Amino acid sequence: MKATVSSSILHKKVRVRELDIFYREAGPAQAPVILLLHGFPNTSHMYRDLIRDLAGNYRVIAPDYPGFGLSSRPPVSAFAYTFDHLADIMEAFIDTLGLTHFAWYMQDYGGPIGFRIISRRPELVKALVIQNANIYEDGLGPGVQEIGALQQVGDEQALHTAIVNKLSLEYIKNEHLFGAANPETVSPDSYELAAFYMSRPGMEEIQVTLFHNYGTNFPLYPVWQQYLRTYQPPLLVVWGKNDQIFTWPGAIAYQRDVPAAKVHLLDGSHFMLEEYHEQVASLMSDFMEKI
């Protein structure tokens, strides 16, 4: 069953640990909650269409992390840009909004941020929807492996160059269009806005610092896999199968730990919601109705 479309998205900010956290919200206040955690280099803007698709039947909430989008972006001298810290802030955001048992949608960076929270607070999870967010070595694409190899050998100059390249409009545009079945359906606003946010003063240092911390995610893969095996949460995986960052075997791998997981490979990119938000909303609505 496809969700009913809602007419408006609210744009809000809330104070969390001395930070202003921006978020988009739509849907009835008493409806079941879906929390959307965005990826790199995007923001909650990546969910603009999906929010509208779902908001007729769900209360949909999509925050920007510190250092991203319209949330506070303190300098690295004043804020620890680590995945542990971002997860702590998002956990505090959840508690500040009074969210207690809800569905999680996690893409890219949303995976390591979200899994840190749910593995220590499983009571928050009603269901999980995973989109191109990897917790298995099976799905690590060549770009991720390159960053990992440079970190291992300690080539700081090459690592810095590789990271800074990922902040450029050329790179961000390519990642949005690479593997898209119909590139003309991908809104230029999506990659132009992401690149604009990444070009603001101080952002290079923030994002380079966070990328340097990315390696802390890999040792936690077994912890997150154990969470899945232990709790067997209702799990829907929707994946752009042409993604060159997190490749499609990473989607199939979720069924090793949650055999009942529903996995759908769509003919799209790492940012496949640009093409398939309506299809994903329909899959989510059917999935949510059965849990």
Task: Give a verbal description of the structure.
This protein has about 290 residues and is an alpha/beta fold. Helices cover about 40% and strands about 15% of the residues. Strands 1-2-4-3-5-6-7-8 form an 8-stranded mixed sheet, with helices on both faces. The radius of gyration is 18 Å and the shape is globular. InterPro entries: AB_hydrolase_1 (IPR000073), AB_hydrolase_fold (IPR029058), Haloalkane_dehalogenase (IPR051340).
Provide tags for this entry:
Rossmann fold, 12 helices, alpha/beta
Which helices and strands appear, and what pairs or packs with what?
Elements: E1 10-16, E2 19-26, E3 33-37, H1 48-54, E4 59-63, H2 83-96, E5 102-107, H3 110-120, E6 125-131, H4 142-153, H5 156-165, H6 169-177, H7 188-198, H8 203-212, H9 221-231, E7 235-240, H10 249-252, H11 254-257, E8 262-266, H12 273-289
Parallel strand pairs: 3-4, 3-5, 5-6, 6-7, 7-8
Antiparallel strand pairs: 1-2, 2-4
Helix pairs in contact: 1-12, 2-3, 6-7
